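W.,

You were right to be curious about this one. When I first looked at the sequence I had no strong expectations either way, so I just let the prediction run and decided to look at it fresh. Below is the sequence, 308 residues in total, followed by the output.
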Amino acid sequence: MTSQPTKPTRPKSPVRWTLLVLLWLWAGCVFMTLDLFRNVPEFDRVRPDWSVYRGMRIAAHRMVGEPLPELDRVRTTVAKDPADLLARRLDAARAATSTAALADLATDADPRVRITALRSLGDRHALLRAIHDGDEFWKVRKAAARLLGRLRAERELETILASELPRAVREGAILGLGEAGTAWSAEQLLAYTTDATYRGAAVQALGRMRNPDAAAILQPAVLESKHATEVRIAICRALARMKASAPTLADVLADKANPAAVRATAADSLGRIGDKRSLTVVAEAVTDPDAFVARRARLAQARLSHVR
């Protein structure tokens, strides 16, 4: 009787065993972490409002299919989470229409709620009260000074700038000049660009101006080489936001005596304004020797070619 040949045993794949070992180690780490979180109550005492930890713990329990007996307690903790309460107060400050409710939120313990309430309230007297009565947090006073610009309270802004209030409050007033966007505020901002202390805030405010009332002041200023490069760049951006002064920006782009950064910003502004009359100047700048100017001009040309 002939014996059957033995079938050769297939060698076990080392990759399979490696994966099984890694899976076993991962599962062990997960269960050890769960056991640590379950048996060490110091986590809850130290960080009861740690929402990331709570979410991770709930997700881990769901992954392994274990019930979470303290889920109701966790939900109660989440409902009392200070971050959640802050979000609710911020939403209330944004949505409130009652003057009494906003006035109450303007004295909230959290400065972010106070700033939001002052923005929604839009009351000149409340803003001046926050500035001169000395809110305990400097950002609230700075925001209040800036919000005066939205109300175009030019006399109040001038008083703040001439006062001995803290520097942050006066910087807020300079930013408020940009919010006002009037011709007078544009003149004041151009004057402050020569002040080493407030130059940064003035340039920032200039670049954010949107009111076309200031265009008459900014148009000749962008052509004057006496202003610094960053000031002229900010003016170009402001004119682009106003959707005005395309011929002036075209002159800035065409004059090769201007700094390359100013000419490049002028080309970008022409593309944003969308006036097809400036297409000829932009097309000429596409072949400019300066690569930065030529690149911005190509982008502006592409934008203008889609304008009807």
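Here's what jumped out at me. Residues 36-54, 66-81 have pLDDT under 50 and may be disordered. And, maybe more interesting for your project: The first helix runs from residue 14 to 39.

Coffee later to discuss?

I.
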